Amino acid sequence: MVVANRAARAIAGIDADTLRAMYRHMLRSRMLDERIWLLNRQGLVRFWVSGMGQEAIQVALGMHVRPGVDWVAPYYRDLALTLVLGMTARDQLLAAMAKADDPNTGGRQMPAHFGCRRLNIITTGSVVATQFIHAAGIALASKIRGEDAVTVVTTGEGATSEGDFHEALNFAATHRLAVVFVVEDNGLAISVPTSKQMPTADVSDRAAGYGIPGVVVDGTDPVASYLICGEAVARARAGHGPTLIDAKVPRLTSHSSDDDQRRYRTAEALAIDRAHDCVGGFAARLREQGVLSARDEEAMRAELLAEIDLATAEAQAAPDPEPESVLLHVLGDA
Ligand SMILES: Cc1ncc(C[n+]2csc(CCOP(=O)(O)OP(=O)(O)O)c2C)c(N)n1
């Protein structure tokens, strides 16, 4: 990769190499997400739930996690987060195409239900909010074992209306567990706006009820998100307990590949979200600050495209699971 400006300034104490790495992670996720969407439209991926618009907070969070040491309970929009942790484009495409070598579950999970034993990414449940309980339990286990592992758990804001969220917050706060709760708040649960989910403006208002810090961050700003996530992870690791982060993000696509948001959102609302696209916004900011040149970006795009093209070809050529193995991991391994 060509890096034109080594002497570029840091932003908010984050050095230029880290800023470029953040942008590369965001762009990689966006380009892969777009590819998977196309494969869905070609009938090669049967379903997709996109993370487009939510990459900045996911990358910022992932960069503070020690892969394979800390624990991650993700939700279905966390393509960027799981890529930062070490899942590859090929891993993601094998899963999306339900191939036998899918590292999540060998082709048994829905697309976007991430999981990777090697990286301590626990498999994603389709039932929203169950991940909070898993996260609190894992963090309790880490505490009992005397380990300094931090557990991060992510969610949309809609899932915080479930009882599991409140139980997990209460338990983690009471036992000062090393959990970071990150809400990727895109303002919609499928078609239901936040105003119909909760009477408070921000999910982070809930934190006061459990005696833990609750913070709002612009989840499209990778710099602000990186600083906030860093504080929360450090706090958890130091034994000071959980933090609830409410990251405001847009939702750039329909809820999933199976609905059309133009049926339930106005053209103005869609335009506002598009104007808050973190990938384009961060590229412009890095260019202004002299951190990323046009040549850097071009080289980055070419390199990522080659990676994604190769991963697509490999995943397409990979074998499907054997039909006889259909009950494996369902009713036991016999
Ligand atoms: C317990 C449960 N209820 C309902 C659903 C159906 N469902 C799947 S995603 C979703 C919306 C969740 O919205 P939010 O938590 O805001 O996340 P977002 O999709 O907006 O990122 C719903 C209702 C489900 N999977 N599980």
Please tell me about this protein's structure.
By secondary structure, the protein is of the alpha/beta class. The chain has one domain: Rossmann fold. It is 41% helix and 9% strand. It contains ten helices and seven strands. A five-stranded parallel beta sheet has the order 1-2-3-7-6, with helices on both faces. The chain has a two-stranded antiparallel sheet with strand order 4-5. Helix 1 crosses helix 2 and helix 2 packs parallel to helix 3. The radius of gyration is 19 Å and the shape is globular. Bound molecules: thiamine diphosphate. The site of thiamine diphosphate has 14 residues, from strand 2 and strand 4.
Characteristic key phrases:
binds thiamine diphosphate; alpha/beta; single chain; 7 strands; 10 helices; Rossmann fold
Q: State the end-to-end CA separation.
A: 48 Å
Biggest pleated sheet? 5 strands, parallel
How many strand elements? 7
Spatial order of the strands forming the largest sheet: 1-2-3-7-6
Portion in helices: 40-55%
What is the topological layout?
Blueprint: H1 16-41, H2 55-62, E1 71-73, H3 79-85, H4 89-96, H5 130-145, E2 151-156, H6 163-174, E3 179-185, E4 188-189, E5 192-193, E6 214-218, H7 222-237, E7 243-248, H8 267-275, H9 278-288, H10 294-317
Parallel strand pairs: 1-2, 2-3, 3-7, 6-7
Antiparallel strand pairs: 4-5
Helix pairs in contact: 1-2, 1-3, 1-9, 1-10, 2-3, 2-7, 4-10, 5-6
This protein binds thiamine diphosphate.
